[in-house]
Design brief:
The complex is a heterodimer of chains A (807) and B (555).
Chain A lengths: L11 E7 L18 H9 L13 E6 L4 E7 L3 E2 H4 L6 H20 L12 E3 L5 E3 L4 H4 L18 H4 L6 H17 L9 H10 L6 H8 L3 H6 L2 H10 L10 H5 L2 H4 L2 H4 L16 H10 L4 H7 L15 E2 L5 E2 L14 E3 L2 H7 L4 H4 L21 H6 L1 H16 L5 H10 L6 H8 L20 H7 L8 H4 L1 H17 L9 H11 L4 H16 L8 H18 L1 H9 L9 H5 L8 H11 L6 H12 L1 H5 L3 H9 L6 H14 L27 H6 L4 E2 L1 H10 L4 E5 L3 H6 E2 L4 E2 L20 H5 L3 E5 L4 H10 L5 E4 L15 E2 L1
Parallel strand pairs in A: 10-15, 11-13, 11-14, 14-15
Antiparallel strand pairs in A: 1-3, 1-9, 2-3, 4-5, 5-6, 7-8, 12-16
Chain B lengths: L3 E2 L3 E9 L5 E9 L9 H11 L2 H5 L2 H33 L5 H15 L11 H13 L4 H42 L7 H51 L21 E8 L5 E9 L18 H6 L5 E8 L8 H7 L10 H17 L5 H12 L24 H4 L7 E5 L8 E6 L15 H15 L2 E7 L12 H22 L9 E6 L5 H14 L1 E2 L11
Helix pairs in contact in B: 1-3, 5-7, 6-7, 13-14, 14-15
Classes of the chains: A alpha/beta (807), B alpha/beta (555).
Protein name (chain B): (Mediterranean fruit fly) hypothetical protein
InterPro entries (chain B): Fy-3
Organism (chain B): Ceratitis capitata (Mediterranean fruit fly)
Amino acid sequence: MHQSKSKPESRLAAITFFAKTHPGDVCGSNGLPLTPNSIAILGRAQKLKELKHPHLCQYLDFVRGKHERTIVVSEYFGTTLQDKSRSVLIEPLVVRIFYQIVCALKALTEHNLVVHNLEPKHVLLDDCDNVKLFNYGLYHMTRCGDYVPFPIGNVRYMSPERFLGSKNNIKSDIWSLGMIVAELLLQTKFWPNLKISNIARKILSFCQTNNVFERIAREHNCLERYEQINGELRILIENCLSVTPAKRPLPTDLFTHEVFSKDIEAYAYTEPPKPTILLYRCPLEQIYYWWQLAGGDVQGELKKEGLIRSEAPILAIPQLVCLNGKIVGPKRSQSYLMDDRVVPLKLNNLYEKLCNQPAMAYFPLIHSPKFPHNFGAGMEQLPLVIRERDIEYQFYRVRLFSRLLKGYPYTSEMIRKEAAKDIPPYLRGPIWSCLLDVIPIGSYGKIDKFTPTSTDRQIEVDIPRCHQYDELLSSPEGHCKLKRLLKAWVTAHPQYVYWQGLDSLTAPFLYLNFNNEELAFLSLYKFIPKYLQWFFLKDNSAIIKEYLSKFSQLTAFHEPLLAKHLASINFIPELFAIPWFLTMFSHVFPLHKIMHLWDKLMLGDSSYPLYIGIAILKQLKNTLLASGFNECILLFSDLPDIVMESCVFESQKMYECTPKSVSHRFHVLRETPLTEFDLTPDVTLSHLQAEMCPRISANDFTSLLHYAPTDMCALDLRSAVEFSHVRVPHSINVPFVAAQLAEPRLDALGVSQLVEMLQGRIVICMSNKHEHEFSKFLVECGVQRVCVLHKGFNILHTIEPNILISN
Amino acid sequence: MEKLNGKNQVDFIYNYKNYNDEDSSVRIGIELPFDAENECLDELVTRLLNDMDPMQRYLDENISLKAALRQFIQEENQKFLDNFAEQLLEQARQNEFDLEAVIRKTERHYKDEIIQFADRVGPSDEDIFAQSFHRLVHSSSLEEILKREGAYAKVISDITTQMDREVETLNSAQQQEMDSKIKQLDITTTPDDINNLLAQQYSTQNYIRQRYESELQAKRGHQRNEYRNWITSQVGKIFESSPATTPLGNRSSMFISQQPSMEESFTIHLGSQLKHMHNIRILSADVTDLCSPLHVDESLNGLNMALGLYSSSLCGVVVLTPSIQAQANKSIIKNANMSTEFHFDQIDDQLEKIEKQIFTLSVNDSPTPSMQSYNSATNGSGVGDISMPNNNGSGTSSSGGSPTKTATTKLKTGDFFITKHSNLSQSHVIFHLISDEPINSPSEINSRHPVILGLRNILKTASRHDVTTLTIPALLRHEMSEDMTVQWCMRRAELVFKCAKGFMIESASWGGAELSTLQLLLPHDISEELFTTLAGMVPNVFRVANPKILVDSNK
């Protein structure tokens, strides 16, 4: 299949402006420093990304630059009405434009949005004369213009009441619409040469006028044309331009108006032909994402157009700064003024990178083995960070996963399989929710998130301290959302309480699903029982103690020397690991590291976090081995930078080579009941705390023996007589003699080549007594992967079919 | 269904059938205009739902309730907004508004903030020169620039040395003359004669000085013109030949070790989850060494300073200065005058201008109500209301009548003024921080002390204006004195370290340039032992980054 080689037009554009800076040093009501306005804008603007409507340009991204700069990226193409109206437009086309703007306004009112900067420059027309509004969210994202120093809206199209301080009234937009259409119908530009003050004076003088439309027509010597306009249409415009806002029609009134409905076919949206370039058939937000990966740099583009001017900073330094906030310096440079030029972002680069991709890569077939979808298969060996920045690879992955996600929950298994390779950052939020088996059913809406509760105070305190380096989470919008999520979770779980740390645990989900609170909530809702079952009980000490004891045992299992050292200085996990596990590390790592960690965590079971903990210890091994108690406490009080890639790799490795029963905990959500050959509930907390090595179940023992005999080494501690009587194949008899264990030296056991035999295998001590003492001895000798057979040798007699050799 | 309840509140009454099929209703008051941000629809629905039987929740009552409420609010809110706008318009019709004022304000707003309507001013000479210089300095012409600067500097320093020499010879000659006269006192000369001679000598000296000063000034002016013209002419040529790309930042070290001073460097991480990396260097040196003149010898040819001058990684130094007018450290002034300042005003002119600014600032500082409220706002956050030494209420004393100059031209502790330099060794920008701590009695200060707050302001200014290397006096002193005990020094250093750390963490949210290197400057006459002690405190206060060790992963 070949794509036509026509040049790609630009479909994206950026605008930029500066947010207001806070004067001096002011604090908010909570005593914390005020949020910079640019961050507040960023938070408010997120909502706009969700608006997808044929008559609205889609918002794609909001970027915060240095010194309070905000950059807005959105859809942009075709011609502006301003350009189009340089030539005369026929009346049906004008009505069409009129109608379609009404559609856009109607869609916006449904989201409680007003435009307030409606003008021909912001009305775009495509080849089929479909209207799309552009830049309609500026007023909303800047909170009625409060966050920016400049005024919003073109004076020429501004309604009189807006000059006097009315705001947030959609009727003001109706006025602007009336003005735009009036201009088109009278085929002239109103007051082309007047100064702002004179235009304002004109508009305010309309207060005294009954028929604004007629008066404007008279002033511009267009009375004749005015009278030629279809009567119904003229009245409609006169209504739109009524000075009294109550008399202006609402978008819904206009939407069903006779003028349009009589020939709705001619006015309604015409579906444009399918683009010949396959790239354009992809969702715009994906195109923008790839554009960035293909080297697109919004700031760079703006710089090229002179919209970001780099003036030498030293020239702007003030001369005098006083403690009372007074600053004397050079005059503000004009480069800080609002410049509403629109900069198109060129897609050539991206197009060249992707134009040779087969159609199958754009639209992978996931159920047809005849057409494999394993594009980019060779790249899986590359490091994750490289794959995540590779345009081609991410292109394949995003296309594949967007397909798979559409088929969820039926594609659940395939998603899991593909996610094991890696998860494309662009779709991480929905993919995680699939891995957690989330199915949104609208239940979030019913949860009471508002009634004050006793935990509110703690939540209020925690939120402004939760991952605040992140722009989204530190915005007021982010705070509100996080609060709602936390309160919803608390309400939904009357059996649980809010433990500090739940905020950190929620943050990654909110960050990934900022515009979809329900998905964020349900992900959290599913995540907690999977990995943190009963951790949020009011009295969670039993669960935490079990968890930490298991952590100690597994540390001894994988890192015997480290475990020995930590035990000798009495540096127990209670001192450092509770926040690790209670928040699944989201309290100790920045978000971008949590993402990679949880990518793997989501695929593992509830024991996976334990291995992450060990991987962290392993990374700090040398420091820890050289440190005493105090140094260790200091080290963990502010965890040093951990290399996430190797941490993930190590934990994955340990997770895969550890038999399930070794990491067994009683307090987990269990799907199948335990049998007598599993670890039975009679292993209590006191056992866990007393025993240095974990136990292995008879089931795991048998399956190791059957399927991976080379991965294990069974040490039989019974006496030689008993051993000769009945034994496990390939097992080694080391009759237990207490005196041999006085010094931690393996050769004291008198077994030749024991070190070699134990190397790299799971060492299972079995006996009916003394096995715990013996296993501890092995750990102290530095033997890795030592575990103890649960219920001793005797359990093996009852296993069917028989695995023992007897003489 | 609703009635107007008071001015801005309407009651929403929702009628429904409950699970027993009985008619029921709930009611809630809704504030208008409806604030969709703070009071979201869902919250109101929840509150209404809570008034109903819990069963209704499961009967999906919330869906129809939400729809009804949404429509109600939309209608009522629209009515309210329309009425509100109509009232405004009516007031306008009745001339209750000063419409001309509204128009003026609107026009002002547009003209001041939107570039299309603003009175466009082209880039200033400074901007153009800055750009030309920056372009040139990052091209092959760099060497020539430096050579030229060196030559110019030599001329100036020659004149200065010549002046010094001449003044010195004159001095000794005059001294001899005076000595001989004094010996003859009451023999051939009268005290009057001596006084006359003194006056005469003084005026001769003055004359010589002035002659040189004016020669220097003329020379500097001449050099400056010549230099700037040359740069501008060069850049045209460069532009034709090669469009050299200008590296924006210059992160190379600004440090040229001049004399064996004690120093130690650390790389630290700040932030609880996301870690930002910074460099910390603790060193003992004379502050004037950080502001020594360029071009005095070959090693200090100003290469790094020239590269960084118009970049977005500037170097700044904090120098403490007493509050007597805008008075900079004498030796720094002298250093800055060792060569022509080609880019900014000569330091004396800069100081003079600042002096004027302080004066106008204090004249305008009559306590108008708005200003007072602003002050109280800052006080509320605990910034301004600490008793300051030498703060004899100068800012507000001039409430009535015209302020007298003496009372008002003083800066207060914690204020600072800034001078810019292109001809000093390690500083583009000098922050002259006012501190009146008496030299011989070290006092105890806390983190709310004005000097500390001034330091915070400096960090903030630095972040806003891309100063990425900053040197601060770690003891808030430039000299050691007898009374500065080891304990005192440790306490003081700990305070400054901790505050600096706090400000650096805070600065991450300021949205400006990140401070890449913080230099903690200790007095040059500090003992080695004390230096080691204080340097040892750095890793305890700041979190030192773990060294990255390359390990063979195959092992």
